[in-house]
Amino acid sequence: MNPTFWEQEIVQVKAHHDPKRFDVVVLHPPDDPQSLYLKRVIGLPEERIDYQNGCLFVNGRPIKDTFAEQTEDFVWTQITSKPIPKGYYFVLGDNRMISKDSRSFGLVSEKQILGIVKEGNTNK
Q1: What value, to the nearest 5°, has the Cα angle with vertex 26 and ends 55 and 95?
Q2: Which residues pair with 124 in a beta bridge?
Q3: What strand order describes the sheet that includes 88-92?
Q4: Which residues does the UniProt record annotate as the domain Peptidase S26 (predicted)?
Q5: Which of 49, 54, 99, 103 could bond 69 through an S-S bridge, CB–CB 3.0 to 4.6 Å?
Q6: Is the dihedral of CA 73, 71, 98, 84 positive or negative?
Q7: Banded pLDDT at 122 (limits 50, 70, 90)
Q8: What's the pTM value of the predicted model, to 2 decimals?
Q9: Which range is least confidently modeled, 3-7, 22-26, 34-38, 48-52?
Q10: What mean pLDDT is predicted for residues 2-16?
């Protein structure tokens, strides 16, 4: 999750209740349930996600994403014609060029998310 978080950095995690877009979550990746990853929630249930020319599109509408310019083009319909199912999320790392995330291991179920990382000194 560089540059947002560094390896071995200590973070505060709060209980996970319905993560929102751009929340950073702690999760067990589907392909390695013993590992813990920090990833940013990009796609929510019932959505389709695309990245085109450095811009995030959610259900065809542009959405501001700080890391979109670093994200290679990604077209949802190349994976499936269905939206993200209920109870699942599409997550990406902030270091998009080398991140192992939903583009490689698929969607993350709500049960695989252990908590939401509290960023900075906000009282979210």
Answers
A1: 35
A2: none
A3: 12-14, 113-118, 24-27, 37-43, 88-92, 108-109
A4: 1-117
A5: 54
A6: negative
A7: very low
A8: 0.84
A9: 3-7
A10: 56
